[in-house]
Amino acid sequence: MSDIKLVFHVNENNRWPFTIRSVDNFLLHSGIEGTNVTVVANGEAVRSFSQLDVEPHRMSRIRELAEKGVQFLVCNTGLEQRQVNKDMVPEFCTIVPAGIVEIARLQTEGYGYVKA
Q1: For 87, what's the count of Cα atoms within 13 Å in the CB-facing half-sphere?
Q2: In sequence order, what are the beta bridge partners of 62?
């Protein structure tokens, strides 16, 4: 299973708990490194990077996954549309111009798509 690559797409803020559990379970049961896993956050899901979302453990769980090698991409369009300051996005996340473009790019690189 070491050649499996997945992109998890989260665009609703209330889907973060499911997304985090899914990524964690995938890493646990697949036996592969996190470097083959990317999470793309766009739409309402970018609110987790602002004080508009008061979920105390969410960012620490995202950090834990990033430390395991999971890449987190955050849509700049979503940030701008929801007036979330880019400075609120943690350093272990990467801001990309458009999340949907990154999802398409990753799929052309052989990543499977999971809608979270």
Answers
A1: 0
A2: none
Q: Give tens-digit pLDDT for 77-110.
A: 999 999 999 999 999 999 999 999 999 999 999 9
Largest CA distance in the chain: 40
**Any idea how long the chain is?**
116
Residue bearing tokens 């929801």: 82
Which CATH number is 47's domain given?
3.40.1260.10
Paired residues of 71 in beta bridges: 38
Instruction: Give the count of domains, the chain.
Output: 1
Specify if 1 maps to a domain.
Answer: no
Phi/psi of residue 29, nearest 5 degrees: -95, -15
Tokens representing 33 are 């490194």
∠ Cα 62 66 68 (to 5°):
120
Separation of alpha carbons 39 and 71, rounded Å: 6
List the domain range (segments joined by +) for residue 31. 6-115
The span from the CA of 37 to the CA of 23, in Å, is 8
